[in-house]
Amino acid sequence: MDGELTERQSQVLAFILRSVERRGYPPSVREICEELGTSSTRGAQRHLEALERKGYITRDPGARAIRAEGPRRQGSIYLPLLGRVPAGPLNYAAEEVEEWVPVPPGLGGPGAAFMLRVKGDSMTGDHIQDGDLLVVNPATSPREGDIVVAVVDGEATVKHLHLAGQDGEVELRPSNPDYDPIRVRAEDVHIMGRVAGLLRTLGAGS
Question: Are 45 and 85 in a shared domain?
């Protein structure tokens, strides 16, 4: 530790440590705002940046993952859960941190940045079930056939990525035969990242 903390930074750090101790993962930025009695998410982010700079927490370079430093939690990796993503009919997925989820070190490989919760059953052929948590890697360019999180018209879905031919279209294929592929123009789809890992929570798929 190489810096004195301000009163607000100490409050944020104490809140993080309480959350890790009681729940096993750090609080969301929104929860930090509530603890501080402010609506400024940028202010909360500045406190986190200061805590990282002073050595009280660490975050993986290029990824929104956080480690709360200390004898009990040192080395544990936390990835932000951004929201629910459908593996079926398209549905909106809000890009905000719901909570921080502890994951085994190395899950998803280098560049794993966030997690999303599956909604639906269109990817059961790949053993991806409703309620599963997907580790998404936005740093690695997806290849033909990779499972990706794709956004079309502001809505997200989990599918296999395939080029649809010479007409500039992309096909997003489910692995459940009950669902039809989604064909879109390449310029109308945004690939959030490649699915690099999966965590199954208690009760998922039941």
Answer: no
The answer to whether 142 touches 194, Cβ cutoff 8 Å, is yes
Contact 124, 177 (CB under 8 A): no
The answer to whether the CB of 91 falls within 8 A of the CB of 103 is no
Is residue 49 assigned to a domain?
yes
Q: In this structure, is residue 68 part of a structural domain?
A: no
Tell me which H or E stretch contains 15: helix 7-23
pLDDT of residue 74: 45
Q: The tokens 């990706």 sit on which residue?
A: 148
Number of domains in the chain: 2
Q: Which helix (H) or strand (E) holds 172?
A: strand 169-173
pTM of the model: 0.62
What would the pLDDT profile of 67-111 be if each residue is shown by its tens digit?
A: 666 433 445 567 778 876 767 776 655 556 777 777 766 665 656
Residue 54 lies in a domain: yes
Same domain, 86 and 151: yes
Separation of alpha carbons 20 and 8, rounded Å: 18
Residues with active-site annotation = 122, 159
